[in-house]
Amino acid sequence: MKKYMMGVAAAALGCVLLLTGIRGQLLQQGISGKILRFHVLANSDSSEDQTLKLQVRDAVGVYMSDRLETADSLEESEAIVEENLSGIEEVAAEVIQAAGYDYPVTASLETTLFPEKTYGSFTFPAGTYEALRIVIGEGEGHNWWCVMYPNLCFSGSLYEVDEESGEMLRAELTAEEYAAVFSEGDYEVEFKILKFLNQVLE
Q: Can you name the residues that pair with 112 across neighbouring β-strands?
């Protein structure tokens, strides 16, 4: 009987994990279809190149913050970014040249694979997202990310996620999607099932 119960519990656990994985994938796809990310790739991991990455980030942030201020949809934000790609490259190139480097730099709007990443109280699952992607030189150094729409990049001081940013994100996502990215959210049903299975297997 004990072996039978263990078999049933193991099968149930497998189903829970499978369904949780499918649910997580669907949530990620739903979230990614509603946000635009900002991605800056440094030339290398040297301290100089990492500092340069942040300088480029700040300059592009200043350049784009006013332009994106009135954008009230993902589509409008994407269009604004597309219209300003050459300007973004010019701004980044000026920063790179002023710092004494001759690295090439490119800016593009593309689908990019991201790892799980946390901004303030929000954790976005790993997966593919549309992003403004800036590559400095070889682009082989540690990267920097934020969410450009809804605006989690330019709230308060640059790159500080505040309460207003959270409300903008809440307005874009479903309740389930928002709970999935908010760090205080939990999945009580899954936890209860897993607790039950652990008790059966004891």
A: 129
Confirm whether pTM is higher than 0.85.
no
Q: Tally helices (H) and strands (E) across the chain.
A: 7, 6
Would you give the end-to-end CA distance of the chain in angstroms? 14
What's the pLDDT at 7? 53
What is the chain's alpha carbon radius of gyration, rounded to the nearest angstrom?
Answer: 21
Q: Of 168, 196, 139, nearest to 73 (Cα)?
A: 168
Cα torsion 20, 184, 177, 164 to 10°: value is -170
The pLDDT-based confidence of 48 (bands split at 50, 70, 90) is very high
Alpha-carbon distance of 129 to 189, in angstroms, equals 28
Is there a contact between 96 and 68 (Cβ–Cβ < 8 Å)?
no
Residues in a beta bridge with 146: 38
Token couple for 78: 């994407």
CA separation for the pair 192, 31 (Å, rounded): 25
Residue recorded with tokens 């701004």: 91
Exposed (0-12), middle (13-18) or buried (19+): which is 193, by Cβ within 10 Å? Answer: middle
* Cβ partners under 8 Å of residue 189, min gap 6: none
87 token code pair: 């300007």
Element (H, E) at 141: none
Estimate to the nearest angstrom the gap between the alpha carbon of 153 and the chain centroid. 11
Local structure of 37: helix, strand or coil: strand
